[in-house]
């Protein structure tokens, strides 16, 4: 394989890598929340209480895209991934498995 | 693509089919993964299960398949692998008709990582492990690990092809490679 024949190959690989990198930068979850600094957010515990009262069994709460991201099983038994706005604790997006 | 004169068949049809099938399903599942957060995960999951099935078939074929497909034919111990690496750095490594010792470990690493990613992905959809942090993290990490592993795999293929002046990509398509010369490892 000569160096000249390698070039298109290398160029294609570099294009693919930059495309992936661009996609990774764009990567986001089900939603994004513009909620400002975390010190002003409502506490995670309050959201957990609110959801537990609804009958959800909470499996994991983390922060994604500036929102609280919750993995839980609903009272009906559905596996749900839901996003909540940290200031209002309103659900902004959800998907069930 | 005409195989070179004096070519011999090295990769049987099933090895080739499983190789390209695994490449397609892993790349597809990767691109449809959570990092792009598609609203519908159905195809990510289907491709993941396809990859798991391919790993299972390849593992079985690695036990009962023909010589160059068998794990015992290409998985070498640490001493032999280290010796090969030293030869490689001195530019004196022999040409292998099948997988060379480093290539053999690359196969094992890719199969194991697919197993890890597929199994953790499935586990994360079960009632018992839904949202389980270690399952999610394992799935994310094994998914990301495909980037360096595949890069290393491709680099090894290009490097070995250039070094021994044969296209390993074509060999994996046609199954055929130039007949062994004196000094080659069959």
How does the SSE layout of this entry go?
The complex is a heterodimer of chains A (97) and B (186).
Chain A: H1 3-26, H2 44-53, E1 57-64, E2 67-73, E3 79-84, E4 91-96
Antiparallel strand pairs in A: 1-2, 2-3, 3-4
Chain B: E1 7-9, H1 13-31, H2 42-64, H3 71-74, H4 78-89, H5 101-123, H6 133-163, H7 168-174, E2 176-178
Antiparallel strand pairs in B: 1-2
Helix pairs in contact in B: 1-2, 2-5, 5-6
Looking at this protein, list some descriptive labels:
A: 97 residues, alpha+beta, Nuclear Transport Factor 2, Chain: A, 2 domains, four-stranded antiparallel β-sheet, B: 186 residues, mainly alpha, 2 strands
The succession of helices and strands of chain B, N to C, reads EHHHHHHHE
- Biggest sheet of chain A: strands, sense, closure? 4 strands, antiparallel
- C-alpha geometry of chain A: elongated
The helicity of chain A comes to: 25-40%
* Spatial strand order of the main sheet of chain B: 1-2
Mean model confidence by pLDDT of chain A: 86
Number of helices of chain B: 7
Number of E-type strands of chain B: 2
How would a crystallographer describe the biggest sheet of chain B? 2 strands, antiparallel
Note the total helix count of chain A: 2
Strand order of the largest sheet of chain A: 1-2-3-4
Outline of this structure?
Chain A has 97 residues and is an alpha+beta fold.
Structure description:
- The complex is a heterodimer of chains A (97) and B (186).
- Chain A has helices at residues 3-26, 44-53, and strands at 57-64, 67-73, 79-84, 91-96.
- Chain A is α+β, with helices and mostly antiparallel strands and 97 residues long.
- Chain A has two domains: 1-29; 31-96, Nuclear Transport Factor 2, Chain: A (Roll), CATH 3.10.450.
- Chain A has a four-stranded antiparallel sheet with strand order 1-2-3-4, covered by helices on one side.
- With 186 residues, chain B is mostly helical.
- Chain B has helices spanning 13-31, 42-64, 71-74, 78-89, 101-123, 133-163, 168-174, and strands at 7-9, 176-178.
- In chain B, helix 1 runs antiparallel to helix 2.
- The longest helix of chain B is centred in the C-terminal third of the chain and has 31 residues, at 133-163.
- Chain B is elongated, with a radius of gyration of 18 Å.
- The mean pLDDT of chain B is 93.
